[in-house]
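Protein modeling request. Please complete all fields; requests missing the sequence field cannot be processed.
Requester role: graduate student
Desired output: 3D structure, token encoding
Chains: 1
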Amino acid sequence: MAATEIQEPRTYGNWRKPTSAGILGLGTIGTALLLVGLVVVVLTALIGGLLKAVVLAAVLAVLMVAVLSKDRHGRNVVSRASARGAWWWARSQRTNVYRSGPLGRSLWGTFQLPGLAASTRLSEHEDSYGRLFGMLYTPATSSYSVVIGTEPDGAALVDEEQIDAWVADWGHWLANLGDEPGIESASVTIETAPDTGTRLHREVMHNLDPDAPAFAQAMLEQVVDAYPSGSSTVKAYVAITFGAANRKGSKKRQAEEMGHELATRLPGLTAALQATGAGAAHPLTAQDLCEVVRVAYDPASAVLIDEAHSLGQHVELTWPDVGPVSAEAAWDSYRHDSGYSVTWEMTEAPRGTVQSGILARLLTPHQEIARKRVSLLYRPIDAARAAAIVEADLRAAEFRMTSSNKPAARDTLAVRAASATANEEATGAGLVQFGMLVTATVMDPAQAADARAAVDNLAATARLRLRTVYGSQDSAFAAALPLGLNMSKHLRVPSEFREKF
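Delivered output (501 residues):
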């Protein structure tokens, strides 16, 4: 009898937040400001007297305490106070309220998208395979985005070796994004929603034999009426964002020129994506993208759109008319047409190592949430910058460990993780910054409490730490859509500066 080898499940991990060297838990910029403040206090004591120096030292101490006092999500008092102040200013200016259409506040009388997506423009082109694809242009960031629709089969009844191969191919696909010229960011959006039943009704009625027995016809009709109750649909989208300029300082390309370039690059991107287990990958047309955004802002319109498709009718939507008629952002929620949404952001990835199915329960439909959208945001880093980033992170981790006579266990593990990352990058691995947004939409605001509790429980199963995006629900809602918005370019304070404070 031959002995069989039992293979242990493959695990993944070793993701790190970018850090910079500093003292007392501060980054490079925070440490420099502290030292400058101490020098100013000493000069004040020598020139202005001891009383003024004591007052200045007290102000500096209060500021440092506010910076160092962080909550469980890593946000200090200063960042929370600035978010509260920005929200108060937006509410006082009524910029959190949006009314569109002929009777709205907009001068052009259309149903334009609100907030970050208001200035986006949509055009349609044809790739080298003869497939139409929609291309979004965002003038605020000078970037172009294409959205790819996928049909993943899931991991049910799939061998573990095949799942490991899919994960490896997905890692290669992300790593190759850093080598693709002009790519700024990418996002993966998994959306679950109730099944309207129109597709099942169309399929059954189209194939129903009128000469079949009455009992068989009655059974099929009962299945069509009962089966959609409680069932859901799962859709997946991959948005890729390209810069308008080939390189820094070069001329920005126009939409027609960019469309010609992407027409030759899309077939390769979709073919590589299919090897990751994403199933049949195809670029979304302009009409498909309009329907996706329209249903996101008005979930009740999904039934009408599905019914029109079942009748063979063409739904004509234009980009200036896919926005909500009415939308209002609150401190911790977002009301838009027939939907009421809450968006969370990931503040900490799972610690330690995880298996490939760590996000399975978070991505599956939930009975307490009408529509759930989980978006993974990626920022690929080119090889030239990746080496400098991992080496700086390793030096910062070593500095934190050696700055104390008794280093903490986390500091020791941080050095090991940073060293492993540097070694992997040196052997050719790619470096990607990633984040996550989770949006839960309900049809009745009274169901919001159940949706919040459901997301909290699902985050615990995925070992994620999620935080409600307070004061920016409208922007977070748009960022979670498959629009290819590069959020790092919409920040007033660059993310590189925040990481070093």
